[in-house]
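User: structure tokens for this one?
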Amino acid sequence: MSKVVISVVAKSGSGKTTLLEKVIRILKEKNIKLAVIKHDAHSFEMDKPGKDTWRHAQAGADIIAISSPEKFAMIEKREKELTLDEIVDRIEGVDLIITEGFKRQNKPKIEVFRSTAHSTLLCEPNELIAIASDISWDIGIPCYHIDDAEGIANEIINFMEKQK
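Assistant:
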């Protein structure tokens, strides 16, 4: 099966990370190999000041990688942001890639909607495979309660099956 990419989108404070944590655990219990790509609209810092990789970056290295028997990480300085497709192309060995954010990209989406954080949906119905919400939606898209991680996980699995 080729990689399936699904973006989970929402306004800040809607609970998308909390929902994703639960959904990821359920998908892993079902032996799905997955990657998560988090979009950060701001500059982020992964290295801890004073650590070797931070010192290498401060000295001017363009790419810094660190590897151990359990983990591998690479930081690459960029002049412009990679596209989502460019990032996806770099990820191997998974069946599913979930992005958190990337709401403007042309990937199928699950929108997390919390009525205290939103007034309208961010996405058009044709962009969505599901909605996780604290209120009901009747727009022809499967709608799950915002706490129904099992339902969302099953919707993702069904979507993956259709993509085969």
